[in-house]
Design goal:
The chain has eleven helices and seven strands. By secondary structure, the chain is mainly alpha-helical. Strand 6 and strand 7 form a beta hairpin. The N and C termini lie far apart (127 Å).
């Protein structure tokens, strides 16, 4: 019986003339666009201005790429600085190799700079973009499929990944597609964060912390399945320890933050509410003026009606006076007939 499997692409790059189009880079770029798009929708829903997420992403994304590459190069330095290796390859980010831990850490620094320049609280911005970030990770993991990397142990499952490359010591065969497991897990984390945020009104960075904790929980068991070379500490891969440590920090932050600063931020972007309020005020002034005008018209009509009634009474009093009968209901202010 022929084994069912997930095929690997024959190559991870296409050439459009002299321009190389790399699948890994495309996955990263698409992920960034999705993160900004979804983050912008959530930011506006929280009372922020459209475009703010993209403005801050201009700072966060480059910092994140540098941080992700630095983490990878530092933790796998032997791939670039050992004997027979070319250290220039450390700069070839398009060939794969981004550590999510470094990307989030340095990306957060870039986001902090962008938020500070706009006078925006970083935790609120992070809450808005959290589901988008993890969706970007889900998309980005398919870049590993193009590069035939980050797979797990051998398996005969029908969704096994067929590795055909022999580069960098790969052995062709059928392996657990850990890149696919992580991609699906990240998509589930995005759904979880969106649901929890709506259900519990998470604020002050707790939605972002939930994303971090949930991602780390999945990354721990997925990392345990991988067979690519990695540094080990007490029998566990370095990334296992990192996932465990970051998970504990995220959970602790959720607990402490919920006690000290419950609820959401009343204002996420200074000035955004004022702009909306001015628009509403401008829109509200017109009906108010119309109403005032209507009341003025009604008042004028009422005055005219009252004046008409008084004139009629004076005319009637004059007729009665000529007839020799002064009506008793004619008041002092109504007619001079009574006075006569």
């Amino acid at each position: 019986m022929e084994l069912a499997f997930i095929p690997s692409p024959s190559r991870g790059v296409l050439h459009l003339g002299p321009i190389p189009l790399r699948g890994y880079a495309f996955c990263i770029i698409i992920g960034v666009f999705v993160a900004v798009w979804l983050g912008n929708k959530r930011w506006v829903a929280r009372g922020g201005q459209s475009g703010t997420v993209a403005d801050i992403a201009v700072w966060a994304v480059p910092f994140g790429l540098v941080g992700g590459r630095l983490y990878h190069v530092i933790t796998d330095y032997e791939l670039y600085f050992s004997e027979g290796r070319n250290w220039v390859d450390a700069f070839k980010i398009w060939e794969g190799g981004l550590g999510i831990w470094g990307a989030i850490a340095l990306g957060a620094l870039g986001a902090w700079i962008g938020c500070r320049r706009r006078g925006i609280p970083l935790p609120a911005w992070a809450d808005a973009v959290a589901p988008g970030i993890v969706l970007a990770q889900a998309i980005g993991r398919w870049g590993n499929w193009f590069n035939q990397e980050l797979y797990g142990r051998e398996t005969d499952l029908p969704w096994a990944l067929h590795i055909t490359s022999t580069a960098d010591g790969r052995i062709p065969g059928y392996y657990h597609p850990t890149f696919l497991y992580e991609s699906l897990w990240c998509a589930g984390v995005a759904v979880l964060v969106i649901w929890a945020d709506r259900r519990f009104k998470l604020g002050h960075g707790r939605a972002f912390a939930l994303y971090v904790a949930a991602y780390c929980a999945g990354r721990f068991w997925i990392e345990y399945m991988r067979v690519d070379d990695a540094h080990h500490i007490l029998g566990l891969r370095l990334n296992n320890w990192t996932a465990l440590f970051v998970f504990l920090l995220a959970v602790a932050y959720i607990v402490v933050s919920a006690k000290k600063r419950p609820g959401r931020e009343p204002v996420v972007e200074p000035g955004a509410a004022d702009d909306d309020g001015d628009g509403a005020k401008a829109a509200g002034d017109a009906p108010g003026e119309d109403q005032k005008g209507d009341e003025g018209v009604k008042g004028d009509e009422g005055t005219k009606a009252a004046q008409g009634t008084k004139a009629e009474r004076d005319e009637k009093a004059e007729r009665d006076e000529k007839a020799g009968a002064v009506p008793q209901d004619v008041t002092d202010g109504a007619g001079s007939a009574k006075k006569s």
